[in-house]
Amino acid sequence: MTPLIEFQKLSKIYYVGDSVIRAADNISFKIYRGEFVAIVGQSGSGKTTCMNIIGCLDTPTQGSYILGGKNVGKMRDNQLAVIRNEMVGFIFQQYNLLPKLNVVENVELSMYYAGVPGGEMRRRALESIDRVGLSDKLKSRPNQLSGGQQQRVSIARALAGNPSVILADEPTGALDSKTGGEVISLLKELNRDGNTIVLITHDNSIASEARRMIRLSDGRIIFDGPVVKQDRDNNQAQGQTLSQDQAQVPAQSQTQTPYTEVPPS
C-alpha cells in the first residue's frame, strides 16, 4: 500500500544568531489513508514544524515530503497553495472563522478560493454542516455560537473540501474538557467513516484517543506505535497533560531574534 503522507529523512533547520536550530531532525515516518495519528510533544519538540510541513505551509530544508505520491517538499509557493486547497483540511485551535460571515458562508469560503462551482459549493457546505450537527445554525454568526459549535463549523469547513487528510492543530485547546471530549468523539467518528486524521497536540490524554501516536522530542521521533487501550484508559483516569509551561507556544515562536533558514544542501 502506498502511504498518503511520507517523511523521508526530513529536517528543518534555522539559524538563530550563531546557533543552528534543528526544528525537525532527520525524521522519517509514513501515514496511510484511513489512519488516525496523533503527533504529540511538549513545547519545542518539533510537532508544529511537522504540522506546517504536512499542511504545505512550509517546506523541509533537507530530505523529502511526499503527499499523495507527489514530492511537495520541492514545490514553489503557488504550487503548495494548490495542493493545500485540494488535499488538506485544516482544523485550528482558535477556529479562524470570519465574524461577519454566517455558518454556511464560513464553510463555503475555502471552496470559493479553490474554485468550486456555486451549486456544488452550497451542496457540500450543507452536507458537512449536517454531518457535524449544526443544520439549525446555518444563518448564525460566530459570536452567536458556543466555542464547541464554532469548532464544529471549523470541522465542517475542513470536511467540505473533500480533503485527503484532515489536519487538526490542538482542536480542543480553547475548549472545556466536556466540549473538547465531544470534538474528539466527532473526529473519531469521521475517522471511522474513512477520513484520514492527523492530530497535533501537547496533551497526552487527547493524543491517546488516536489509534497511533508519534511522540517527538527535540525534533526527533522517540516513539511511533499504536495506542493501546490500557494507555488510553490510564490517561483518561489520570487526566494526564503536560504542565502549563510545556503547553505554551513553542519556544522558537517566542524568540525576539529572527530566524534565517539554512539553504538546502
Multimerization state: single chain
CATH fold node name: Rossmann fold
Please estimate the helix content.
Answer: 25-40%
Mean pLDDT: 88
Instruction: Supply the helix-strand structural class.
Output: alpha/beta
Order of strands in the sheet with most strands:
6-7-8-3-9-10
At the fourth level of CATH, the homologous superfamily is: P-loop containing nucleotide triphosphate hydrolases
H-E order: EEEHEEHEHHHEHEHEEHHE
| Major sheet attributes | 6 strands, mixed
Low-confidence stretches: 240-260
Q: CATH class, please?
A: Alpha Beta
Number of helices: 9
Distance between the termini: 31 Å
Give structural attributes.
single chain, 265 residues, alpha/beta, Rossmann fold, five-stranded antiparallel beta sheet, 35% helix, globular
Fold and architecture overview:
39% of the residues are buried. Residues 240-260 have low confidence and may be disordered. The protein contains nine helices and eleven strands. The strands form two sheets. It has a six-stranded mixed β-sheet, sandwiched between helices. Helix 5 (147-160) packs parallel to helix 6 (177-192). The two termini are 31 Å apart. The radius of gyration is 18 Å and the shape is globular. With 265 residues, the chain is α/β, with parallel strands linked by helices. Strand 9 and strand 10 form a beta hairpin. It has a single domain (5-260), classed as P-loop containing nucleotide triphosphate hydrolases (Rossmann fold), CATH 3.40.50.
